[in-house]
Amino acid sequence: MTSVSILKDPSRQALHNQTITLSDDRQLGYAEFGSQSADAPVILTFHGFPGSRLEPAIFHNAATELNLRVIGIDRPGHGLSSPQPGRKLLDWPADVRALARRLNIDRYYVLGYSGGGPYALACAHQLPETEMLGVGVLSSVGPWHFGTAGMDIKLRVLFNALAWAPWLARLIIDTSFTKPVHEPDPIKMKALTDNLLASMAPADREFCGKPETLDIMMTSFRESFKHGSDAAMEEGRIITTDWGFELGQISAPNVRLWHGSADHNTPVSMGRYLAEQIPRVQYKEYEGDSHYTIHYRLIEILQGLVGAGQ
């Protein structure tokens, strides 16, 4: 990783701000990172909650080293993507397939991180293995019926509010994210980032406090809340209601899960539960790794994902 975020490179702005028009006239935003080689394997990535197409900028150096083309996609209502009120989790695979076809990508891998994990699993349930060569699920949230035990207390409050008191969830999201991330005063913005880092475990604070990592995180958050908190509320509704399929129904042969044992955002118990329920899954647990420090394993994770489909 360089000392300057790849998002600051003016020569790459066109790659980071692309859209296609879907069959229902919605816009779907995406950004490209890693290799631009025509023969590079393609990984379609699904951002966390909150997040945006810019989140996989953190993958850029690892993907470049491994000759992998990484495409981050804005889910509906985030960044450059049009809203899709009332959408379901199982609506997502059709958008993914439409993007792949528009970009003339015949075969690809998918990778969902944190709140993007359920979307990768939806693809594992819906998309044919003739197109989708492998599915990666990194530090994923679990189904709502599994519960929130082991989560950081602030996240437990938020997720339970999303499920039972949406008005309170919106208040929390607007107060904690929507308004602060658009703060124009650099002094107030620094106070926000300082508070965010202070709330993290020491190892996470060290990782996320690096200037390039912090820039990627905050830029992605700003894109996530570009149009207010409606998209976040939709995300919360989807995560905290029935996903529309059983994990045991997933038939994709190349599903890989990675989780850190010290993760308090999406506790390791969630990863273990997913691994128990999904047939033929390959599960890797990293002792002592947390929600953010697991990114130190990106080379190994990306190699493992692409190796699953070869």
UniProtKB/TrEMBL annotation:
GO terms for biological process: antibiotic biosynthetic process; monocarboxylic acid biosynthetic process. Residues 41-294 form the AB hydrolase-1 domain. Pfam families: Abhydrolase_1. This is AB hydrolase-1 domain-containing protein. It comes from Penicillium capsulatum. The lineage of its organism: Eukaryota, Fungi, Dikarya, Ascomycota, Pezizomycotina.
